[in-house]
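Hi everyone, sorry if this is the wrong subforum. Our group has a chain we'd like a structural model of before ordering constructs, and none of us has done structure prediction before. Sequence below.
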Amino acid sequence: MKAPKFMMACLLLCLAMLLAGCSEDNNVNSLIKNGDQAYANGDFSGAAESYTRIIEIGKATDEIYNNRGMCYLNMGNTQGAVSDFTEALALEPESDVYLNNRGLAYFDSGDYEKAIADFSSALNVKGATAVYYANRADSYLGLEMYQRAIEDYNEALKLNGNLINALGNRANCYFRLEDYEKAAEDYSTAISKDPENALLYWNRGEAYRMMLDKNKALQDYEKYASMGEGLTADFYLKRAELYVDLEQYDNALKDYESAIQIAPDQLILYEGRANIHFLMGNYNDAISDYNRFLSKTDKSDLKSYAVAIGNRGFCYFSMEDYENALRDLNECIQYDPEYAWAYFTRGQIYQALERYDEAKADYDKANELLENNQ
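Answer:
Right subforum, don't worry. Here is the predicted structure as tokens:
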């Protein structure tokens, strides 16, 4: 959710012309040309060196400070950028451009309140400007002030309906407010204007998933994957969960394996893959993954731990290894004594062992818990 940079390319190109023709400033003109060329080539460090030299020889102007500030901003030196934009504003306090640029520096540093103040000042100086509204909206979004952000995105999009970032980020606001239908509408509009933006498909897929439109969600996830961008462990995990919901267990298993290749230390992935093996009846593979998860996971989340222990026990039960199955279900109930499924499963084990009184007691307990939870 990064605000778009409002680059003043025209300022950099015109600066050399401002000083041209002054013979005593030939060295300054040369430094300006070098700085402008370096900036145009993406060599922000080299450009900053040229602008710094101009400042050191006492020929600084507000434009020079602004240009070096833009270099610092692109280099991630937000403190230096804020300092230079402040110097530029000291020389030209009514510049909406410098106010906006300093706002971007504050935004990048995470100081959203100061960013909002500068974008508001830029709007006061310049009047209604789409980019300034969008930048201020991004800052409100950073503060999780979603409704205020939406109001500014609305103003920005009235002035310029082609601001893809504004559409996407307004959709993000709707998503956070759990208005998934409006979020999906904005993502769709953004996609129609920028169909090569992979992240928009991923985000719209998330909105469809929250709306329980699983087929549309899967279409968007698969479109995102086909574009080959940002295929992280988290992406594979989310798509795997959707495949499980759609009972496409083979595809879910492939996604868990892809996620594990990327992040082999994330224990939750082994638990997830174990659950897939469990659902597919691959009990030996499921037990292997549950063992890995249970041997290293923190037991502080008792219910999650109990579920994994119980599932492993069911695998043993399905393989007629009643001794290990009973051990796991006993431990499962110890961790979560309100887990109705565990009593029912242990009842099945007791029944298989012909321990009918204990089986009946567990079935009764399972029914009691289920009735209490209705």
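For your construct planning: The longest helix spans residues 302-318. The CA atoms of residues 260 and 266 lie 7 Å apart.
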